[in-house]
């Protein structure tokens, strides 16, 4: 597969420019962040990408292989760590047992079935080192119940077929081992007055670890629908109508299907890349070019399995898949120490695509500890670009970072039943806006000092 980083890309459409101008003006006039923009647009306004490549060859085979791996119960591992340096226990075991999910390994660890140097370890994040002896027995699969919970949901739109929700940061989308409650799915079950389903053979992946967060999960295209439960189920999914996901730390818009037809129709739109998705982020530094297109495959980072990595050649990367993103600098902040950047996904490879591509461009998202945008990194760049008199103010601002500064701003799709082109937008939440405002104020102070 050719690796292309397009240094120039076609200008964004008039609709895009209007959205960008609207975004800038909305932030500058300090609107109530809790207010939500809700609009429907005509079919001519809702742009789509219809000329993109289809799914890469071999994905069906990969999916079939995973479906056949139904149980690892009783599998034993007794090995010594050969890697140099430190690595998470759950990541190391996942690498040693082919095909097993990391969530399954985490469950085994929490069950007390893993020991390091003959001492039981129950923390999946335990760091192992060269020479450590690890003994592990994979546990039996446990049923997982998804119970409805009275959780306040920011519902942007709802009808008989679909539900559009503004997910807050720090909320996990669906239940998984370690995150059985407090998820978006729990809230939807209660909101829609659905019964409590029980799932057998659960091997769900936890959003809290940002692991394998498929924007379009292959399993979602092969689910069955239970009319009694009003709920999509299969051996590997506990997502009632969840068509796509956002990482735990990412805020913004999600569409949820309320019936089988809508789920299949929306899933197909994601597969064909005709869903419009626009994100905004705050980055560490400013990209070299004000706008561009990144067409770099991404795959699992084999040295750190909680993240993806841009596959530019001989890297330690798992099976790579095509991933393309467009970006545009909306505003340069704090003397060039940061930027407000708009992103458009051309592929639905994984929601970590933006985070991986931002890291590849050398502008990791602020607050993204997994992809290099740590507080220390952000502070170093900001202090480098601003006078020492502002360093204390910058330090206080950076300490507020507690998640990747990424927000799903706009979501557009074709209504699965009416055929209407629909588009929804909502402003970033308060934490994002506070960081943005702080960076703007610092930039304004710097300009005043430079001109005085």
UniProtKB/TrEMBL annotation:
One GO molecular-function entry: pseudouridine synthase activity
The protein in question is named RNA-binding S4 domain-containing protein
Which family does the record assign? Belongs to the pseudouridine synthase RluA family.
- What are the UniProt keywords, alphabetically? Isomerase, RNA-binding
Q: Which Pfam families match?
A: PseudoU_synth_2, S4
Cite the RNA-binding S4 domain residue spans from the record.
87-149
Q: Which SUPFAM superfamilies match?
A: Alpha-L RNA-binding motif (SSF55174), Pseudouridine synthase (SSF55120)
| Disordered: region residues | 47-67
Q: Which organism is it from?
A: Mikania micrantha
The GO annotation for biological process reads: enzyme-directed rRNA pseudouridine synthesis
Which reactions is this enzyme annotated as catalysing? a uridine in RNA = a pseudouridine in RNA
Bias regions of kind Acidic residues — which residues? 51-63
């Amino acid at each position: 597969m050719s690796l292309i980083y397009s240094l120039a890309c076609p200008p964004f459409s008039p609709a895009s420019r209007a959205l960008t101008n609207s975004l800038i003006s909305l932030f500058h006039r300090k609107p109530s962040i809790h207010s939500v923009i809700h609009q429907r647009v005509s079919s001519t306004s809702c742009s789509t990408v219809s000329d993109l490549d289809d799914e890469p060859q071999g994905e069906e085979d990969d999916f079939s292989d995973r479906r056949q791996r139904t149980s690892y119960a009783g599998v034993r591992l007794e090995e010594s760590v050969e890697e140099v340096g430190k690595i998470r226990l759950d990541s190391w075991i996942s690498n040693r047992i082919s095909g097993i999910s990391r969530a399954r390994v985490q469950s085994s660890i929490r069950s007390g079935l893993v020991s390091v140097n003959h001492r039981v370890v129950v923390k999946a994040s335990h760091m192992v080192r060269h020479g450590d002896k690890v003994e592990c027995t994979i546990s039996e699969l446990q049923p997982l119940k998804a119970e409805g919970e009275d959780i306040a949901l920011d519902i942007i739109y709802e009808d008989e077929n679909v539900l559009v929700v503004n997910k807050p940061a720090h909320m996990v989308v669906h239940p998984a081992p370690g995150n059985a409650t407090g998820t978006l799915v729990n809230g939807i079950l209660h909101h829609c007055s659905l019964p409590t389903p029980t799932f057998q053979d659960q091997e769900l992946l936890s959003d809290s670890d940002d692991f394998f967060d498929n924007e379009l999960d292959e399993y979602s295209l092969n689910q069955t629908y239970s009319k009694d439960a009003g709920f999509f189920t299969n051996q590997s999914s506990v997502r009632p109508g969840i068509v796509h996901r956002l990482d735990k730390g990412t805020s913004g818009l999600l569409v949820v299907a309320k019936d089988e037809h809508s789920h299949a129709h929306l899933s197909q739109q994601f597969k064909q890349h005709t869903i419009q998705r626009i994100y905004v982020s705050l980055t560490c530094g400013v990209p070299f070019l004000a706008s561009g297109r990144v067409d770099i495959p991404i795959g699992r980072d084999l040295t750190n399995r909680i993240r993806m990595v841009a596959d530019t050649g001989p890297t330690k990367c798992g099976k790579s898949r095509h991933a393309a993103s467009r970006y545009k600098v909306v505003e340069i902040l704090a003397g060039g120490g940061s930027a407000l950047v708009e992103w458009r996904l051309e592929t639905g490879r994984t929601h970590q695509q933006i985070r991986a591509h931002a890291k590849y461009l050398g502008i990791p998202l602020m607050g993204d500890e997994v992809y290099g945008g740590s507080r220390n990194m952000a502070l170093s760049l900001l202090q480098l670009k601003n006078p020492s008199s502002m360093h204390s103010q910058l330090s206080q601002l950076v300490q507020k970072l507690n998640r990747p500064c990424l927000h799903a701003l706009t979501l557009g799709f074709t209504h699965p039943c009416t055929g209407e082109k629909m588009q929804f937008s909502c402003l970033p939440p308060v934490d994002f806006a506070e960081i943005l405002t702080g960076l703007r104020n610092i930039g304004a102070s710097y300009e005043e000092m430079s001109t005085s």
